[in-house]
Design goal:
Chain lengths: 112, 409, 409, 409, 112, 112
């Protein structure tokens, strides 16, 4: 199995979720994050004090998938998350050794 | 001065008493509290509430009497009043001040005695320990606020000299503003200032506070007329006009400099306009109010932004930059726009009056500044004034009060 | 009309002036601010504060005079007043309006001139650029609010025609509500509306604002009696009864439809009841107030939920759906329940009066609607009214003001 | 008792009516709302708004009449009034109560009828279902609040017996406090209490509410003088002194016990001081007010901390621990410090008066406690009072109202 | 070493922490997350606008452990996080190549 | 490639970001977290109710790097995040199988 981490723009999350559902993904976990990269941040000014904020808001989507699903999943994320603008984000793939569904104790693919 | 009770005037001063207390609890507490970082919000709120509590007790015990009761000895009376009304003894329910009950007058004045030290908080926010803060404020209220109030409003030397201060430019803003400057110089800047970003944790909160301050200021200024009449009406008008003009001008200056106007800017401008018009509010016309508001915005804008950064002191929330500077500016301009020749109410020679106002500001600033340093030293030696590095990093809320401002999970 | 100053009446109108300003700063600002998304909260607060500031200056400069000073030429006076009191010239401290100082009357009316344009914000929230908004509001205040106020309260044609509007159903809610509808039609819906969820970012904030609006409305309606007497008392009673009835009915309707009542529902119901009773508040009895409150809830409930969604326009915070509809409804019902035969105070023929009220609403709606479109066009051409897609995505706070509403980390 | 309208007195009571409503909307709502967990904040705000709405309708319909209109039969009148003024029939605009319009008196009293049941919320917060809560409160308002008000202020047996309750220690705080205790015993503790941490979700919100309560209390107590005179002035003074003394003492006790003072502590202390001085506020002098404030802080401190934990009941926000205990304490101390011998206004034998006060408290507590249990049972059987486990886990906001308090992402 | 990621219900975190301590885990990192899966979300209604929220609040617990501890750790999490209801969450196990304690520079098991 | 997870004190994040930039890292993702470990938490008291909070605020920095960069990156984080006090945090290194830049579809090192 693989553990896929996708960093996307916050307003893309719903589309990504739908796209993943259509390729058979039944669950995922999303976390709010701040991203640093080529996309530049913004400036804030308070009584003349100018602050450069380098981080931009991102959403981190984590999804565990079967090896068989992987390419479909990556493609689904890319398609649904892409706006063509800098800052669209990244997809990272890690090896997933084991999975367990807490409720049932099922392991492996059955736990996804 | 009438000697019969007027229920209408009394109703208005009772209302104003509520309005001015509301300026501190929770108005100023929120205005300041929103400007600090999340980890220190409660410390600011706590400082405002504890000041309100301790000052109330001190005011009723001796403060009111020392400020507003004549001392037997005229020489003494020039600088401080007597103890004849300690614990409001000799203030029967029937006693009047003008056309309102003396108890109402005493409570109305109390709300000024509360907000003045509370204004100082803005200068040392995010780095002063609670115990020392409270001791300092108790002493300051008796050593600085009470005498200066007597000087100006209790028959003391400033009043006899003919200084004009309708609602507290000198008594409130100069004393507190200068004290703020001294406290922040005494404590030194916050860890990481000015390199580390220290953005307001909730401008929403500050805007709520600003709204309360604006409305409350109607009680502060128009209430100082101690009557519900044309004088109160014109005072309220001048207050509103100055606040609005200053807010507009401040936004304009920001737009000029940064290409956009900000909400922190407009509320700061409004407060600058309100603080600056205070001493003049009862003496000026619409034109004077507009002029004062406009000048207030320009001067405070530079003192709170450029100026402060250039000199490098850390007046955290611009207690001096806005209230102090505004208070001094307004007290001087009162000498100008109070003149009948400029639509004001006073038969004065502008030149001479400006001189009197300058002297009054200088003397008050000197007394407040000097005493503030001494009292800070006392509080520091006694209890330790400066939060240590770890307390500053973790925040005053957890380290001084073992509470957190928000738990939104 | 008495010609001697009454301090009691003056005290109440001074207080009411504070209450009505409080309705905008920060009441309405919070009510609206809580309903938008986090990224736009400051833009709403900023809009309220900047409107309050600019309108104050315009009102003192010419607005008050054009609204409440008769024009020489009677024909002209039917539609707009004169400039005799520009900058409150010829308004000495001693001048009275009825039994209160004219300055107090002018400031009390100013607070109405402030909240009216501020109400419009609700219709175009989250998508209008600040500069264009401010230009539009300044123009609107002079071109729509001032004349309509003169029509109804300054001796203009509506007043002479016998239209009834005790505290501003026509002057405030119809003008603002219709203007809101036009502005949101002009700008088009927000990006993603109605598919993307746009939940309120802080109902807590909106509830605070609603509480301030409710209490402030006592000044709005009962203050319009310009006296502290039985009329003010009955007006306050009608206001309270209508608000409470509407809030209860709204909750009941929600419970019927969704199986539960919501806090957004109950505060919206209360505001609907308050807006709807406004024109009738001084003329009706308890029964009339209950009836108006109940009808207000039912009608506004459908206009703000079903109706809006069906027609598909994006009145972001229901400025039209609640204030506009409530204002029109209330102005018409005033023609009914003001009648002595229904416990009201006026000797009127209901049929005829309803006709007059309808005409007044129609004329006001037409003028406000038409002018709003023209002024939006001007502001749009001059400064660009609609935030571009990126600004809308990032939010107006950062893009228009370079600030963030909260930094709670 | 004068029989001519006094505009000044009327202005003050109109203002006080606004102040006391403001204590509930949004004051108490925020004070309580900030103390619960995020998932329940809206449920508390909703409870306050819905109580304000339903009670207004009931009060105007029958409550006011039953409380303040004499019943024909004197025996009946000892316990409850008549229906002669149902729907404010026979209350013309000209009708006076003392020197103010009766409509103003009725609305001022309404604000007390609103806040009293709202105070009970604190005891069962975070676990009572909305429907049952509303039914219970409607019944409680008629069965407990209205009669007790008649007993004490409407010419009923307590008043005739000579019990003293200036502004509602017995009528408001004893009734609500005891009811709170019974409701929390009836419902049982919250899931996980006391092991699971249940920290306030926003002390900032609670501080805002506390400030509103403090200022609003000026209307509550000084407004109860029904005049703007020396009595009102002294009442306001006593209120301020007691609140400040209690806040200071509470902080001192915390510092003694935990080595630091907290903001939750100081606002709780202030509220304890305000609740406790209420019945005595119009009868005592400065010394009495200080004494009452100090005792209030000590007693409520232990009842809200040590005591509650020891007995193990879950009075979520200390409605009984602070308001109930403070109310009983204050009502008894009124019998002491109201005496002219102790600077008070009443020619009483302290011993006898304390007895009368004790009897009044006991009778009121018994009636409120007993009826509360019965009415809770009715509401429970009819609609189900206790939220089920899942609702408690997810929170009442989503499960009872399908809304969320904040969406700050 | 292994890097264990557990997605659990927020109100289980304290129990999981205790359970992990009892099996000798000395540290862990917790993040607030939103989960999508079989457990259905809730509905919100604002002035007639009905929003279906598919995500439910979850806590993400990350703990690095020795290979030897792994089974104990998984079992401890399962036991303490399980309520038997849908939405109890998942446990994911990844390979952990290296660990370092920033303060001391220690690496490997000593850094845990 | 490697996936580096660093748990650091929140007020160190800016320094870490700068340190990483200087060693050529072009992007990273940061998440707020709560940490449990040797560093002890704090106490809160509300009306006599004393709560022991075991968690301390931490920031989780995730950065994907080339194998070549790894040692430099670890060293940069350690240097910039270390205060010498308990609670400085940890660095975890995981194997990263694949990376994709959503905007362009680039994969591998080019996507970093
Ligand atoms: N090396 C990296 N490791 C972890 N996260 C990264 C890395 N590079 C970029 N990111 C994440 O991807 C987001 C988008 O990257 P950025 O360079 O801004 O745009 P793009 O991906 O379109 O080139 C960043 O905000 C950051 O959250
Ligand atoms: N494939 C997955 N990848 C990542 N996280 C998942 C995955 N499936 C489920 N989760 C997480 O586990 C949580 C619980 O899953 P769910 O299907 O709702 O219940 P259960 O685990 O009892 O079957 C989800 O809310 C989500 O956070
Ligand atoms: N085994 C672990 N797995 C995951 N995170 C850990 C682990 N041990 C420690 N941490 C994280 O590192 C932080 C610092 O650890 P701590 O033991 O407090 O100090 P130090 O790292 O200086 O020994 C913890 O707050 C936690 O977030």
């Amino acid at each position: 199995m693989k553990f896929v981490i996708a960093i996307v723009k916050p307003n893309r999350v719903d589309d990504v979720r739908e796209a993943l559902s259509t390729v058979g993904v039944r669950g995922m976990t999303v976390t709010d994050a701040k991203g640093y990269g080529r996309q530049k941040g913004h400036t804030e000014i308070y009584r003349g004090a100018e602050y450069k904020i380098d981080f931009t808001p991102k959403a981190k989507i984590e999804v565990a998938v079967d090896d068989a699903q992987l390419t479909l999943v990556i493609e689904a994320i890319r398609r649904s998350a892409s706006t063509g603008k800098i800052g669209d984000g990244k997809i990272f793939v890690l090896e997933l050794l084991e999975t367990m569904r807490i409720r049932t104790g099922e392991t492996g693919s059955d736990a996804l | 001065m009438t000697t019969a009770l007027d229920t209408g005037n009394t109703a208005w001063v009772l209302t104003s008493t509520g309005l001015v207390l509301f300026m501190t609890l929770p108005g100023l507490a929120l205005f300041y509290g929103g400007l600090v970082r999340t980890k220190n919000v409660l410390s600011v709120l706590m400082q405002c509430f504890s000041i309100a509590s301790i000052v109330t007790v001190l005011w009723v015990a001796v403060g009111y009497s020392l400020a507003f009761t004549p001392a037997e000895n005229p020489a003494v009376n020039a600088v401080v009043g007597g103890l004849g009304k300690a614990f409001l003894a000799n203030v029967p329910r029937g006693a009047l001040t003008g056309s309102i009950p003396e108890t109402v007058f005493a409570m109305f004045q109390l709300t000024f005695a509360i907000i003045t030290p509370a204004l100082i908080i803005g200068a040392f926010a995010e780095r002063m320990r609670f115990g020392a803060m409270l001791l300092f404020m108790a002493l300051w209220s008796l050593v600085v606020y009470v005498p200066v109030t007597h000087w100006m409003w209790g028959g003391g030397w400033l009043q006899r000299m003919g200084a004009l201060d309708f609602a507290g430019g000198i008594v409130v803003h100069v004393t507190a503003g200068v004290a703020g400057l001294v406290t922040c110089l005494y404590l030194g800047e916050r860890k990481g200032y000015p390199t580390t970003p220290m953005p307001p944790h909730s401008l929403t909160l500050s805007v709520v506070g600003a709204g309360m301050l604006w409305v409350g200021w109607f009680g502060f200024n128009a209430g100082s007329a101690l009557a519900a009449n044309g004088a109160a009406g014109m005072t309220l008008t001048a207050t509103q006009v100055s606040a609005a003009t200053a807010a507009s001008v401040w936004s304009f200056l920001e737009w000029q400099r940064h290409g956009r106007a900000s909400v922190l800017g407009i509320i700061t401008g409004a407060v600058a306009g309100l603080a600056t018009i205070t001493p003049a509010s009862g003496y000026v016309g619409v034109g004077g109010a507009m002029a004062i508001g406009a000048v207030a915005a320009v001067v405070c804008f530079f003192s709170a932004t450029t100026f402060k950064r250039r000199l490098g002191y850390d007046d955290s929330l611009d207690a001096f930059g806005v209230h102090g500077v505004g208070g001094i500016l307004g007290s001087i301009l009162t000498g100008v726009f109070a003149s009948v020749t400029l639509g004001g109410t006073e038969q004065i020679s502008i030149g001479r009056q400006v001189g009197v106002q300058l002297l009054a500001c200088a003397a008050t600033a000197a007394w407040s500044g000097g005493m503030t340093w001494v009292l800070m030293k006392i509080a520091d030696v006694a209890l330790g004034a400066r939060a240590d590095e770890e307390q500053e990093t973790i925040g005053l809320d957890l380290t001084n009060h073992e509470e957190r401002g928000y738990d939104l999970t």
